[in-house]
Structure formats: structure tokens, C-alpha cells
Design a protein that fits this description.
CATH superfamily: NADP-dependent oxidoreductase domain
Number of strands: 10
Structural class: alpha/beta
CATH topology: TIM Barrel
Number of helices: 12
Number of domains: 1
Strand order of the largest sheet: 3-4-5-6-7-8-9-10
Order of helices and strands: EEEHHEHEHEHEHEHEHHEHHH
Largest sheet: 8 strands, parallel, barrel
Radius of gyration: 20 Å
Strand content: 5-15%
Shape: globular
Helix content: 25-40%
Distance between the termini: 15 Å
Length: 350
């Protein structure tokens, strides 16, 4: 297993982490992801550790806390061998203060997560989304207090826009508070919007990227084919995709899958493994979250590492998945001499 620095921190993480959103299946949305219970979760945790994957990603909102509870039981006796990443911000109930990034909610959410996980500290604590109704200073001071108290080791964010992240970094620097070291973001061959602003920001500010839904809710799993119906057992068909259907251009998807088929044949790998390996070649990517409903799916995803696509194969996938950017990014592209352009080939800086 390859390990990379997580942004501008001293923490080293494996290039793959295991996501626990499949644990619990408490409602229709998460049931479409999976309904893994403690016994199988325990086996999958050990399967990950055997492969060198010691970072596990969860959230308080996954199955309304059930995912954290199941994961906490699955890691019994293993806490000193693993890194835990969890999140807060999204609503946990209909109570007026039971969501957001206020000091009140963050402290409560952190303590609740610690209890469900059965641990005394969280290694990476994410803001699951940006709360525009709470002053950034209040959020970051609360997070800094959690760090200094020993309940949290590192802080990170997820699903922020460029200005959300840059403002947060500036406020932390101004007051000498803990800074976000990573941004958990949606990025895949199907969605490359991340490259327009968030990737250059991450390069400039040394923010590690943790990728969620690297297979675009299974669209890049190899199950989706031109002129074939959507598989009935797929997450998309069951209403469990976090990616809106409007964000997917089917014709472009099929062109990408066609190219993936060619490269999968060349490498002897699966479409999903090629898709994941492409992401590992991208600048700022420190880690990719993989999920699995069962141990066989997990084994398949773990085999995405230990080899690399060639530069020509990466360029081929870049070409077929390219999307013309919105303004001002198309304008900036006309003057490459002014841009600190990402080195997309052969640069695996985490």
C-alpha cells in the first residue's frame, strides 16, 4: 500500500480508505448503499488492515449514527492500528440547533460521535458542508478548541467552494488556529469540475484531496453500458445516489466507459480499477474513499493500487472525459503563461 502526506500536515495516510456509508442501511437512501452489520463489518475492517488500509471514513449522518455505532463495534481492540475520519454539519434531527457548524452543534456532534465510535479522539474531523449562517470564526474557534482539548487531531472540510475554503484558511491563519489540512470532494472521470478552481487552490495552499464517490455512484463500475438498461440492483436505480441525475451526460458517460474498456483490456484490470487508478495520478489527491457492500467488492477495489496507468493511458482518459469549463475558467485557459497549471502527468504530489 502506498502512503501519502495529507496536505500540509505530518499525517501519512494510505491512498485508499474505506467508507462506511454502507453500514446500517437505516433508511431507503442508505439502504440502497448497503446494510452491512457488525459481523461482516468486522471482517471487512480486518480485510482492509491486511491490505494496508488503516484509514476509515464515516459520518454522524450515515444511517443516523448507525454507521458510526457499527464501525465502533467492528474496530473493538483495534483502535491503535487505525485512523478514523468522521463528519458533522448535516441535520441529525428536526431540532432547531441539531445541524450546522455552530459551536453548540459541533461540540455536541463531536461528543456524540466519540460515544458511538467508542473512542477518545477522532483523527480527522470534517465539516460535511459549509454553514453560511454561522460565522466562520465561530466554527474554526470551536474546531481549534476540539483540537487543543485532544478530542480531534486534524480538521478538514468537505463540499466547500473555493471561497469557502480560502476564507476559512485565512481566518485560521489570522488567529493562529488549527487549519483545514484536507478537502473531501467529489471527483471522477465523470465529474472533473474539481479541476477548475478547487485543484489549483489545493496546490497553492497545500490542501490534501480526499475523493468521495470516485466511481460516481457506480456509473464507472463497469455495470453501465450503452443500449443496456440500468441494473436494478444499482444504487442509482434504488434512489441512493448522492450525485443528481442532471449532473450526468449519458452519452459522455458511455464514451468514457468505451475508452475504459479498451484500457482495461490493455492492463488486465477492471473498468472500476482503471477509474480509481486514474484518480491516483491526479495532483493533490492524497486518498480515495472506496466503498463496498461485501467482501468481494472490497477485494476488487483494493486491487486498484500496486500498479499505474501509463502516461498515454492517462492522457487518453483525460481526452475522452474533458469538459469545456464555465467562465472564468475558459478565459483563463487562453493565457496558459499566467497559470500555475497542474502537472497532470506523472505528478503524484499528495
Amino acid at each position: 500500500m502506498e502512503y501519502r502526506q495529507l496536505g500540509n500536515s505530518g499525517l501519512r495516510v494510505p491512498v485508499l480508505s474505506f467508507g462506511t456509508a454502507t453500514f446500517g442501511g437505516a433508511n431507503d437512501f442508505f439502504k440502497a448503499w448497503g446494510s452491512t452489520e457488525v459481523r461482516e463489518a468486522t471482517r471487512m475492517v480486518n480485510q482492509c488492515l491486511d491490505a494496508g488500509v488503516n484509514l476509515f471514513d464515516t459520518s454522524n449522518v450515515y444511517s443516523h449514527g448507525m454507521a458510526e455505532e457499527i464501525f465502533g463495534k467492528a474496530i473493538s481492540g483495534l483502535r491503535n492500528k487505525i485512523l478514523i475520519s468522521t463528519k458533522a454539519t448535516f441535520p441529525m434531527s428536526e431540532e432547531v440547533n441539531d445541524y450546522g457548524s455552530s459551536r453548540l452543534n459541533l461540540i455536541k456532534s463531536c461528543e456524540d460521535s466519540l460515544r458511538r465510535l467508542g473512542t477518545e479522539h477522532i483523527d480527522i474531523y470534517h465539516m460535511h458542508g459549509f454553514d453560511a449562517n454561522t460565522p466562520v470564526e465561530e466554527t474554526l474557534k470551536a474546531l481549534d478548541n476540539l483540537v487543543t482539548s485532544g478530542k480531534v487531531r486534524y480538521i478538514a472540510c468537505s463540499n466547500f467552494s473555493g471561497w469557502h475554503l480560502m476564507k476559512s484558511l485565512s481566518v485560521s491563519e489570522r488567529y493562529g488556529w488549527a487549519k483545514y489540512v484536507a478537502h473531501q470532494a467529489y471527483y471522477s472521470l465523470v465529474n472533473r469540475d474539481f479541476e477548475w478552481e478547487l485543484m489549483p487552490l489545493a496546490i497553492d495552499q497545500k490542501i490534501g484531496t480526499i475523493v468521495w464517490s470516485p466511481l460516481s455512484s457506480g456509473l464507472l463500475s463497469g455495470k453501465y453500458r450503452r443500449n443496456q438498461p440500468i441494473p436494478k440492483d444499482a444504487r442509482v436505480a434504488q434512489g441512493g445516489s448522492p450525485v443528481p441525475g442532471e449532473a450526468v451526460d449519458n452519452e459522455r458517460l458511455y464514451k468514457i466507459v468505451d475508452r475504459l474498456d479498451v484500457i482495461a483490456f490493455e492492463t488486465g484490470k477492471t473498468v472500476a480499477q482503471v477509474s480509481l487508478n486514474w484518480l491516483l495520478q491526479r495532483p493533490t489527491v492524497s486518498n480515495i474513499i472506496i466503498g463496498a457492500r461485501n467482501e468481494e467488492q472490497l477485494k476488487q477495489n483494493l486491487d486498484a493500487v500496486g500498479w499505474n496507468l501509463t502516461i498515454d493511458q492517462v492522457k487518453s482518459l483525460d481526452e475522452v472525459s474533458e469538459v469545456y469549463p464555465v467562465y472564468p475558467y475558459w478565459h483563463q485557459r487562453q493565457f496558459p503563461m499566467l497559470n500555475a497549471a497542474p502537472k497532470l502527468y506523472g505528478d503524484r504530489n499528495g
